[in-house]
Amino acid sequence: MGAPALVALLVFNYLPMAGIILAFKSYDTYDGVLHSPWVGLQNFHFLFSSGDALRVTRNTVVMNTLFIAANLVISIGLALLLNEVRDRAPWLSKLYQSAMFLPFVLSYVVITNFALTFLNADTGIVNHLLHNFGSSGVDWYNAPNWWPLILTVVEVWKGVGFWVIVYLAGIISISPEYYEAAAIDGASRWQQIRQITLPLLVPLIVINVLLSLSHIFNADFGLFFQVTQNSTTLYPTTDVIDTYVYRSLTSIGDVGMAAAAGLYQSFVGFVLVVTANWLVRRRGTDALF
Amino acid sequence: MVTETAPPAKAHRPARHSPPAFNLRRLAIHCGLAIVALGFVTPLIIVLSASFSSESAITDNGYSPLPQRFSATAYRYVLGDPGKIVQAYGVSILVTVTGTIVSLTIMSMLAYTLSRNDYRLRRPLSFYVLFTMIFNGGLVPTYILITQYLHLQNTLLVLVLPYVVTPWYLLLLRTYFSQLPKDIMDAARIDGAGEWRVFTGIVLPLSKPALATVGLFVMLLYWNDWWLGLLYITDDRLAPLQLYLYRILTNIDYAASNSQLAGTTIAIPIQTVRMAVAVLAIGPIVAAFFFIQRFLIRGIALGGLKD
Predict the structure, then answer these.
(1) Which residues are listed as membrane-spanning (chain A) (predicted)?
(2) What is the CATH number of the domain that holds B98?
(3) Does residue B261 lie within any of the structural domains?
């Protein structure tokens, strides 16, 4: 009964794993994967000596760290605020939550269209506003220094609704008895949040952050490729491992080096996931495996 | 059945720190949240209103939250041209419907076998599924496999097959199935029901909430996908809606060159057409959003679903 799914995994997940040998070969379409000549570690040598590896690794890790931190702080803040009004205005609170969650179901192509609407140098809303204040505006798609901020805003806008749901569910599951006892002792709402809500959320936060950290080597291709419009001038800050592999494969056509970069990413990702899982399990909570 | 007991005393919760019916603090929180919520939907409103504005108004005044010089020209242009967009819509609908049905079917079939405690290969096969979540071959081997060995490029299959099994959703279904009451299934087996009968007659009907949630996530995955199209589709007739929108965004002339109006002197309202296509791409999702969000929210809150 399970055969179709097992076969699908075999073809689309396990066969490509065997293909990691490409990272150690000089791939030639006519020879195929198996008969292309071996080149040892030469692909890796090119990758790391060009300085590209360092740049895309740094961008991937730095941007993901920014996203994790921003999503964490903002989603917990919003979840706390929603929790304050949830009792008395459940309908409004649901409406706020829906609005925050809405971007989560949109694709990055659609979001790229939004970004263009705001950031286009001529017709964009942001430059229009800047003109009104007498500024000459910014040519956003050629201004790499702004993009860590822009991408963080876009990522939070798209993804924070998801985390709000996670943390609000965590807050709701806290037993009301703690708050009742604290209220009797005369604790203010702010004291209750600091002394009860946040400490009790810590286990959930630790697990989520660990799991996010375990994916820190995997960038969201859609965000970095689509939203930046793949603008070459932005590469210093927006080129990540995923976009680098894609470009090496499709436009540069360096299969060997693209495969090497991909394997480097998969391998470090594997180590990170296993480590994170080990840490989560050591805390005595349900781990991934 | 037990008789109804009195509602638990906890049901009427003692008021927290003396909140009056109306207070400034709560009002401030509402204001803050309302502004944030508005911020989240503003881009959608602007795109919607721009799609109903006249091209010249956008060029003159820029975008705004309300349509300027109301005009449906962009839609008339996009929909009146019986070419790419209708085709792209068709491709997206076909791929989403087929993909969701096939994916849900084969994932639940494997999930059911893995949920059975008496299945000998349960542990090794669960690991077989799980391992694909922690290690992958990467883009390059996958790309070469699909284009050089399976020759799936420029087929509709390539838009469906690679996403047909999502290991995370499969394991979620397995967990749900394994929590179903075993007694009913055992009773059915004693009555002579085979595995298929148990699966289709008992397990699936009892699992509607889980199937709905996972089904919706899979649907979103297919409807929103442009990645497979970007990699494997060069034939315009097979481009799904998202890929079509992507091509318009990256190449402003794409809409024009693919139009039957190409070569004529009619000016193409590029800005508003872009917006109209975006509205058509998000329309179905946003319309469905209000019905499906409670499933998605429940799925996230319970399983910590991640994409």
Answers:
(1) 61-83, 95-119, 156-175, 196-217, 255-280
(2) 1.10.3720.10
(3) yes
User: From CA A89, how far away is CA A75, in angstroms rounded?
Assistant: 20
Cβ atoms within 10 A of the Cβ of B165, count?
Answer: 24
- Residue B27 falls within a domain, yes or no? no
Domain count, chain A: 1
Instruction: Note whether residue A8 is domain-resident.
Output: no
pTM: 0.87
Please name the residue of chain B whose CA is at the shortest distance from the CA of residue A204.
B304
Q: B282-287: which pairs have CB atoms within 8 A and are 24 or more residues apart?
A: B282/A106, B282/A110, B282/B44, B284/B223, B285/A105, B285/A106, B285/B220, B285/B223, B285/B224, B286/A102, B286/A105, B286/B44
Cβ distance A229 to A141 under 8 Å? Answer: yes
Asked, for residue B20, whether it belongs to a domain, the answer is no
Find chain B residues with C-beta within 8 A of A281's C-beta: none
> With an 8 Å Cβ cutoff, is B17 touching chain A?
yes
Q: Does B31 lie at the interface with A, CB-CB under 8 angstroms? A: no
User: Chain A: nearest CA to B207, how far in angstroms?
Assistant: 18
**Residues of chain B found within 8 Å of residue A6, distances taken between Cβ atoms:** 110, 125, 128
Structural domain includes residue A31: no
B44 to chain A, minimum CA–CA distance in Å?
Answer: 8
Q: Residue B172 belongs to what domain range?
A: 78-303
A222 part of a folded domain: yes
Q: Is the ipTM of this complex over 0.85?
A: yes
Domain hosting residue A236, numbered range: 39-282
Q: In chain B, which residues have their Cβ closer than 8 Å to the Cβ of A245?
A: 138-140
What is the number of structural domains in chain B?
A: 1
Q: What is the mean pLDDT of chain A?
A: 90
Q: Is residue A69 part of a domain?
A: yes
* CB within 8 Å of B260: residues ≥ 6 apart: B81, B82, B83
Distance from CA of B249 to the nearest CA of A (A): 7
CATH number of the domain to which A60 belongs: 1.10.3720.10
The reply to whether B168 falls in a domain is: yes
- Out of B32, B37, B278, the one facing A99 most closely (by C-beta) is B37
Q: Express each pLDDT in A178-216 by its tens digit.
A: 999 999 999 988 899 999 999 999 988 988 888 888 889
